[in-house]
Structure formats: C-alpha cells, structure tokens
Write a structure and sequence with these properties.
homodimer, Arc Repressor Mutant, subunit A, 66% helix, globular, DNA-binding
Chain lengths: 192, 192
DNA sequence: GTCTATATTGGGATAGAC
DNA sequence: GTCTATCCCAATATAGAC
C-alpha cells in the first residue's frame, strides 16, 4: 500500500490537534473544516475519511484535550499530593493568558459553546468535568477531610474564573480575579 | 407621519428581546438576523434601521440583560440586606433550568461566546461582571466584613456553576453542583 | 421604517478520479 | 487516503420601492 503504517492514525491526531486549536480560538461555528484541513496541509475532501461530521470531531477533540490535561497526568514522585495539588491549581489559574498551552482546558474555554451541540459532545464535557472533580477530591482527601460539596464548588470556581478572566477586557480586574481565586481555593482545600 | 410616536423605540426594544432569547438559545454565530426579525414579525430589511451590525446588537443585548437582572434591581423594603442577598443567591443558582427567565444572566450563559467578539461586546461583558461583583459586595458589607477577594471568587463560582450546570447531561451531578455552590456561597458570605 | 429583491460570500457534505 | 470539482443551502448586507 502507498501509505506508511499508522499513517491514518497520525493524520487523525494531527486533525484533532489543529481542530482543537481553532475551536479554542474561534468557537465551533466559526471554525470551518476547510480551515482545519488547510492547517493540517490537507484538503477538505480528506476530512471525511477520518470523521463522520464536524460535531463528531468536536466531541473527540474535547475528550482528547481532557486526557492531555496535567490534572489527568501522573504526580511527580518527588512531590506530595498536597504540593502537587497546589502546583496544579496555581498553574490552572494562569492558563487564561491567550491559550498558550497546546491543550487548554475545554471546561473553561468551551463552557457555553457545548450546551447546544449533539449529545455526544455534552457527554464528553460532562465526563471531563467529573474527572477533574474526582482528581481534585482524591488529592485533597489524602491530607484533609474537606467535603465533596467543597470540592465541587471549588472546581466550578476554577473553571468559572478562567472562563471569565479570558473574557474581561480590564487587566487589573482579571489579575485580581485570578489571585482571589487562588487564595480562596487554597483556603477551601486546606492548602494554606 | 405614518408611524406612532416612539414606534422606533418600541421596535428596538422588541428586537433586543427577541435577539437575546435567540443568542441565549443558540449562541451568536448560529443566530441569524433573519430569524431574529421573523420572531419580531418584521423582515430583515428593517433591521438596519435600528442597528449597524449584528455585533452591535449583541453588545446592546448583553448590556440590556445585565440591567434587567434582579441583582441590579432594588431590594424590597421588607427584607434586610442579608435576607435579600440570600434570596438573590438561591434564585441565581436555579436559573440554569432551560433559560426560563426572560433575561438569563449573560455572564453565565454567554461566557465563552463573548471572548472573540468586537471590543464593545467584551466591554459590555466586563461591565456586567464588575457590576454583579459590586452589588454582592455592597450587600455583604452591610452585615459582615468578608474580603474583596472572597466576593470576587464567589462571584466567579456562581457564574461558573450556572454555566457548567447548564452543560452537564447528568441530572444528579447538576443538582449536586448547584446545591454545593449554594452551601459554599452561604458559608463564604457569612449568610449561615 | 419597513418592504422585496438581490449581490456576494462561504460552509458542510458528496462524487469520483488517482 | 487524498485529491479536485460540485451540489446545495444559508447568511450578511445593500438597493430601491412605498
């Protein structure tokens, strides 16, 4: 066959990465398949060999982004659970700066973009939220007994903070908000 | 003249209301001027007598929605500041249910939809956020001395909670999240 | 201020060659 | 798997009549 082994898988990954960048930067509707494929240096015709529709791609990209999250990754062995949680938390609340990471958090960056999409997209979003919540709770419970309710609302605060901070056009307010949420999260999760 | 006095102003209000409903239900890109005007029982041609562009309409609708918020309204004289804040907070955290109110909170419902729009739209969003924060702080400071940082992060939690709750496809998780945030806000704002 | 008609543009998806 | 070419539809915005 004319294509090397795993060529299809590689192409698929590339489409996912290019697509996610554009979804983050422009939202679902404003991102065209044409543009995604041009960024991959392919043409639109090739798209449908990998995905059935734009919506299916969207759900897959969100799931992929959630998997790439640092929260989903392993804790470095030289850090305690508590120290690792503090590190994750402070890095999360800096992420707003112009989506510089490769896989910005879909929970914050696409929050209101997901509501109206196909069920599979909402399912990917819900699973990501549940996973983030579980990870934080598991880390927190190794050193404190903070309640499930506390973890749930802290998770919402983190996501809300990043989503809002990205949108604010007032730099001082943005910084205040991010710093306030770090402070509150540290208190609520007993990281002080 | 063939049109009654204030006809233009009435029409403008009607366009704003119909447009906002659609923006909330479908987002900016998926809302067409054609559909907005059909809902107003007018045609597309009339639109440009009232607004210069869809973006300008979007900013105006967000500003209008923020003004219509209960938070921006007057406190009933028979309620203390503390009781009124508790009432506002619990009603805010029920709002997610399918946007049943006339002017759902743009901060939560349009959070990630605003980032990429014209500066005037982001400015309207920022002003709404600052106003919500100030209102909560002013009420809270009549009976407690909670910090500005606390109020900022609580505000972000409220908005984040509603935005996320709307998106979740798991009813149990949605309810847990809303209840957890009520509980946390009550604690943080000294409303217990 | 509101209408109908239209110019212009662009996107999703498919067909069929290679 | 990837290409080019094409079908089909919808959207913003403008023109000009009433």
């Amino acid at each position: 066959m004319p294509y090397p082994k795993h060529h299809a898988a590689k192409t698929r990954e590339k489409i996912l990465a290019c697509a996610y960048k554009l979804f983050i930067a422009r939202g679902f509707d404003a991102t065209s398949i044409d543009r995604i494929m041009r960024d991959c240096q392919l043409t639109r015709g090739a798209f449908y060999a990998h995905f059935q529709s734009k919506s299916q791609l969207y759900g897959a990209a969100i799931a992929q982004a959630a998997m790439q999250s640092r929260l989903a990754g392993d804790r470095p062995t030289h850090l305690s659970e508590k120290a690792w949680l503090l590190e994750l938390l402070t890095s999360y609340l800096c992420k707003d700066t112009s989506a510089k990471t490769d896989w910005p958090c879909p929970l914050a960056f696409l929050a209101t973009d997901v509501v109206r999409r196909e069920p599979e997209v909402r399912a990917a979003y819900t699973a990501s939220f549940a996973a983030m919540n579980t990870h934080i709770r598991e880390l927190a419970q190794t050193y404190s007994n903070c309640s499930e309710a506390t973890v749930l609302s802290v998770t919402a605060m983190l996501i809300g903070t990043v989503a809002i901070a990205r949108t604010l056009d007032n730099e001082r307010l943005r910084i205040s908000l991010l710093e306030s949420s770090v402070q509150t999260a540290v208190m609520q999760l007993g990281l002080a």
